[in-house]
Amino acid sequence: MSANNTYTRWSVVASGEGGGRIASQFFSRAENPGIDDRILVMNTNRSDLRNTINRLQEHMGSAGNEEELMQENALEFGSQEGAGNFFPNGEQCAREDLDRVVGRIEDEMPNSDAFMHIATLGGGTGNGSIPYVIEQFKNGLTDAEMDVPGWIDSVIHTAFGVWPYYYEQPQRHFNAVCGLSRLLRTEDNVQNADMVLLAANSQIEQASGDGAEQYDSINSAIIEAIDLMIGAGRETRSVIDIKDYVTIPSQMDAYHFTPAVATDVDGSIFELEYVLEQAAENTFVPMSIDTTQAAYAIVRAPESMIDSGEISEPDVYDAFRSWTDSHDINVAGQASLTPKRGKGTDVDVLLLLGGFDLNPLLDHSWDNFEMLRESLAGSAGGGGTNLTHAELDRVVSNLKEYVDQNAG
Ligand SMILES: Nc1nc2c(ncn2[C@@H]2O[C@H](COP(=O)(O)OP(=O)(O)OP(=O)(O)O)[C@@H](O)[C@H]2O)c(=O)[nH]1
Ligand SMILES: [Mg+2]
Description:
Helix 7 (about 170-185) crosses helix 14. The chain is of the alpha/beta class. It has two domains: about 10-230, Rossmann fold; about 260-355, CATH 3.30.1330.20. It is globular and about 60 Å long. The chain contains 15 helices and ten strands. Guanosine-5'-triphosphate binds near residues 16, 82, 165, 201 and 219. The site of magnesium ion has 7 residues, from loops.
């Protein structure tokens, strides 16, 4: 929380095409509590960035001025046009332009308490740049030749990574394995992001249509989860803050999470424990609930239900405890109740499940990774950035160690 004791000030930093597409959905709303307009979309490719801005404009209707959006909410970085689906190129672009990235963040999102970094993990731009940018922020921005304001040191860095569809080409999965490793661990095998949230496209697919539209419902689900998470740091009676989310999982070295969401469930009919279970059946990655090591439950209910006592915080705690008991999991965790405007009896639930066994997500991707490992190590991809065997070996061993230790 910031020093003046207001609510947590979140900022969104998205890189790459998919990351930009997800972040652009924030602009479709009149209000973004907790975020306002602190959103930066970055890309190495000018035409992709234009597309993202055009999408923002569509979302915003007459309120969106293209040039203003380009100046305030968008940044083109790096000397290459695109990362050629090879993550070292995305990282290299961010390295070249770190001063500009940080400069824009300082200008457009001063005094942030927390960043939500968003990238797809199958591509090269977002997946290459975001882990590097986080690592730089967490280690004093040593690659940037500039004075860094004090507030930057205490920012919490959460990352949202999107896993490729199961059927996508092997290089997407190669990138994803490397991206997850680099979000979790620096080269020296210490914690990188404070919290890593994961969603897998194949797991939350409900979409029809193709092209960019196929992503719309997935992206809406992601935005809904982020909304619920941010809301809990804002309006709860007993505020759960992002600091509370990250501290214990980091101490446990189990700081990867997946959202699990149920929305619009009639709270006058269904028991809260049942609504929690509904959410648990909608995890954003394939995983087994009984491997969960940390869990947060955020229940959002109409203000009128809370005021009338129909739902209370003790109810939420009790439901959360009986839900964890029903799965026989003894987790570090917390539950909270947060109001939403309006009447009615529909409640929404976000479970943030952490520290679970990542193997169900990774199995298929490892096979693809191994298939490409020899051909891509030592190679220079399209844009000329070399990925050495030693670098790739560290990426692999860092991830394997983290996964093994959490697989129990
Ligand atoms: N959920 C979701 N996934 C997306 C979206 N757009 C792309 N993807 C996935 O992201 C991966 C491709 O990454 P992009 O975001 O296009 O890549 P990039 O970061 O722009 O990097 P390069 O184009 O490789 O330089 C694939 O696995 C896609 O399935 C989106 O809007 N939503
Ligand atoms: Mg791209």
